[in-house]
Amino acid sequence: MNKAKLKLDKDFVIGKVDKRVFSTFIEPIGDIVYGNIYNPEHLCADEQGFRKDVMELMQGLGSTAVRYPGGNFVSGYNWRDGIGPVDKRPVRYDKAWKRIETNQMGIDEYTDWVNKVGAEPILAVNLGTGTPEEASFEIEYTNMEGGTYFSDLRKVNGHDNPYNIKMWCLGNEMDGTWQMGEKTAKEYGRIAYEAAKQMRAVDPDIELVACGSCANDKSHPSYPEWDRVVLEECYENVDYLSLHRYYSYDPEAIKGTMFPAQFTVEDLPCIAKDMSQFIDTVCAAADYVKGLKYSDKTINICFDEWGVISSQTAKAEGLDWTERKLPEMGKRIEGMNVIDAVLFGSILITFINKCDRVKIACQSIVIPSVIGAKPDGGAFKQTTYYPFSQVAQYAEGVALRSGLQSPTKLTDGYGEQPYIQTAAVYNEESGIVTVFATNLSLRDGVVLEEVLQFDHVELFEHIQLHDEQPLAMNSLENSERVVPKIIEITDKVVLPPLSWNVLRYKVSKN
Ligand code: AHR
Question: Which domains are delineated in the chain?
Answer without folding.
Answer: 2-8+400-508 (2.60.40.1180), 18-396 (3.20.20.80)
